Amino acid sequence: MTTIERDKRLAHYYDLEYRDYTEDIDFYVQLADALDPDRRLPVLELGCGTGRIAVALAEAGFRVTCVDMSEGMLEHCRHAAAAKGVEALVTPVQADMRDLADVPEGPYNLAFCALNTFAYLDGTAAQTSMLAAVHPLLVQHGILVLDLTPPWPHLLPPSDGELIQQGTYPDSDGSLVRKLVTGTSDLSTQTYNVTLLYDAESTTGALTRISQDLTLHATGRYEMELLLKLARFDLEDLYGSYGLDDFNDSSERMIFIART
Asked: Whole-number mean pLDDT of the chain?
């Protein structure tokens, strides 16, 4: 399997898992609408995946620039936008979110990094680079949203080499895709070395496997607040859910709303 084929396959499996996830859609659409009811400026998504949120924003009338390093993810995003008839409003850009010099169509009222994508920045240097890159793309008093998973033990990836099955997803060709996750942790650096295993069982029973190795970084509340301050953002709010509940020990999201 070539690198391009592998990238497309992984993007396809990601899409199977997340394309029907809608819990955060209203949050982003309503926030974008509150900031810019006339749809004057585009929205910037960092780490857009297969375009789940970007397409929903486009359906609501917003122009969206969506950045991802994976061409496979962006290809899915283009197809999803075309399927909804909003391809003219969606601009996919293949780029590293730590380097946004070539991102078009700014400035932006709103930029966001959804569903713990910030954790793919595997250390302080990468995190500060991303925050420094997005700051000048926002208008004065523009908003940056970072949706993180709190570093509670029960929400963290497997860390002792155990193997867990995270989900089973039917594919359009009749096959069944099972996602398994294993990993180890380095607590001194807040790093998790995660391996994703996708087992696809065809209608004839044939089994194929593809794996993906990831390095994720867990970030705590006050660490994130300091990173935002150092990047010249002012923290406006911290929520524990997409329904804007206060952040507390039982929260399963850690949503930072920061302003330039």
From this structure: 96
How many other C-beta atoms lie within 10 A of the C-beta of residue 254?
24
Q: Which residues of the chain have pLDDT under 70?
A: none
The reported pTM is 0.96
Tell me the pLDDT tens digit for each residue of 175-186: 999 999 999 999
Q: Hunting for tokens 């995946």 — which residue is that?
A: 49
Angstrom distances, CA of residue 220 to CA of 94, 190, 225, 227: 29, 10, 9, 11
